[in-house]
Write a structure and sequence with these properties.
It contains twelve helices and two strands; from the N terminus they run H-E-E-H-H-H-H-H-H-H-H-H-H-H. It has a two-stranded antiparallel sheet. It has 286 residues and is mainly alpha-helical. A hairpin with a 6-residue loop joins strand 1 and strand 2. The longest helix is centred in the N-terminal third of the chain and has 32 residues, at 2-33. The mean pLDDT is 90. This is Sugar ABC transporter permease.
Amino acid sequence: MRDRNATAYRFLTPYLLIFAIFWVWPIISSFLISFQATRTVPWRFAPGFNWGRLIGDPAFFNALKNTLLILVIQVPVMIALAMVMAVLLNSPLLKARGLYRFAFFAPVVVGEVAYSAVFRLMFSLDFGIVNKLLNGIGLPKVDWFSNVTPAMALIMIAVTWRWAGYNAIILLAGMQSIPEDVYEAATLDRVSKLKQFFYITLPLLKPVIVFCAVLSIIGTMQLFTEPFLITERGGPGGGTETLGLLLYRQGFRSLNFGYASAVAYTMAGLAIAITLVQLWLTREPK
C-alpha cells in the first residue's frame, strides 16, 4: 500500500510543484507585501502603513459602496431572472429547448471586450438603439455614461445579461434532478403548478440556489471588466469604480503593490464573510 501511495505522489509531484509556485506562493507573497511600504526604494516593512491607509481612504470606501450596491441589487435580480429562465427552459411545452439553452448560455462565451464595446454602442446618447427606443415610446434620452445612477444601472444590466443565462443552466440542471414522482403525487392531490413551484421546486433547489448565489457574490466582489471597459475606468468621477478596479489602479497604474495587496485581501475577506453569513442564514435546521 505504501509503495502504491508513493507512486501516486510521484505522479502528482509535477502538478503540486506548479500549484505551489504559481498559486500558493503568490498568495503568501501578496500577503507579505501588504505589510510593506512599496513606494519607497528599497521596500520597507511597515505593518500599519497600507492597512492604516485602507481604513481612512475615501476611494476605498467609495469602491466598497459601489461593489456592495451592485451585490445587493444586481445579484438577487439576476438569480430571480435565472430562475424564471430555468422554469421556461424546463417546460415540456417549449420546442427547440436545446437551441434556447445555447442562446441563454452564449453570453458567457462572448469575449468581454467585444460585448463591452457592443453595450457602449447600444447605450450611446446620440445613436444608441436604447435611446432611440426610449424616444420611440415618448421618453427622453438617458445619458448613460455621464451620470452616476444611469452608469451604475448600465453596469448591472450588462452583468445580468452576461451571467443570468449561466445561472439559469445551473438551476435547470438542479430542476431536472428532482424526481418526477414528487410532481406526479402533487398533481394527483390536485396541487396547482404555482404551489408545486413554491412548495416543491424551490425547497429542493435550495442548495443549487445557494451555490449560484455564492458564485455570484464572489464574482461581484471581483467585478472589473464592465466598469473598466463600459464606463471607462469606473466613471463618471469614480461613480462606478469597484474594488477590483481600485486594486488595478493602485497595483498596475500607481505601482503601489503593498496597498493593492491590502485591497485584494480585503476583497477576499469580505467575499468569504458574506458567503459564510449567507450559508449560515440558509442552513438546514437540525
